[in-house]
User: What shape does this take?
Amino acid sequence: MYLKKISPISSFLSLLLLAVLLVGCTPLAKNIAATQEIEPVTKTVFLMGTIVKITIYDEAKEIEPIFQKVFDRISEIEDRMTINKATEKSEIIQLNLKAGKEYSELSPDTFYVLEKGKYYSEISGGKYDITIGPLVKLWNIGTEKARLPEEIEINNTLPLVNYQNLILDKENFSAKLNTPGMIVDLGSIAKGYAADEAAKILVEAGIEHAIINLGGNILTLNTKPDGTYWRLGLQDPLEPRGDYMGIIMLNNQALVSSGIYERYLEFNGKRYHHILNTTTGYPEENSLLSVSIITKDSIDADGLSTTIFLLGLEEGMKMIENLPNTEAIFITSDKKVYYSSGFDEKNFKIINEEYRLQRLEVVK
Assistant: This one.
């Protein structure tokens, strides 16, 4: 899977660092004297293989039930879409078990995420592919079973990766994998959907100002209570987790990054990261260290961050420039930082002088 966030237990503390706001005082509450402040309330749990952290900046009469409803919803999504837990609740496991045999019935949740995943597979020409599962299982990067596969193993596995052999039947909310041995893996997009669903619950509960963080998948509700933008650290891809190269400001937006630093295997002095090329079967090798997507919905930011990374700087930038209300920040191996034309440069500040902002003109 293109699992984007760091391994669960060993990186617990560093993930918590990522979730913390870099800059800014406690936001002022609305409709009360400026001298009064509302302390944000934070709850953290372990779900979807990562640290989930919800921070609410509004007053609520019964805030604990709100948190519980959010976490229950995320847990429900995990149960339906996981391929990493032995559970009969997983609709994706059932879909994979029936590969080459028959259709599998799905909930609207799972069908929607499959649709989104197949869409990004299609527009990327298969660079991104949600049937990447057989390759992911071969490498197992980010697990205790991680290893460097033999070339013959990779070559034998590649034919199983083909999103065109995932058939979706919207009328009956069902899907089928045409070839035995195929495996759908939603690790690159399901967290984004879960963040969006969490946001819906908060909004329905009357929450106006909050940050949702699923292992680094960030979704902000509106601005801070005082009207200023949220200020968040952008990971330095060449440094340990929690070391930032810049500050990005968000307003009612999602931010998701993919990069070579997230999950990797080291073997004989070489690092193999987790973002696999569907043509070669090996980790993608291009000039990019990381890609960060800023857009309205987290599911789109999640799917696009991997998609754009695999497309590379020029093709990735071209796609971003043709998508509405979607911006991107690219960091290359020579420490240059490129950003899409619709991105307001005032909302991004480099704090590590080794990095330099650049412009890349593309033909839309």
User: Anything to note?
Assistant: The first strand starts at residue 41 and ends at 47. Residues 1-36 have pLDDT under 50 and may be disordered.
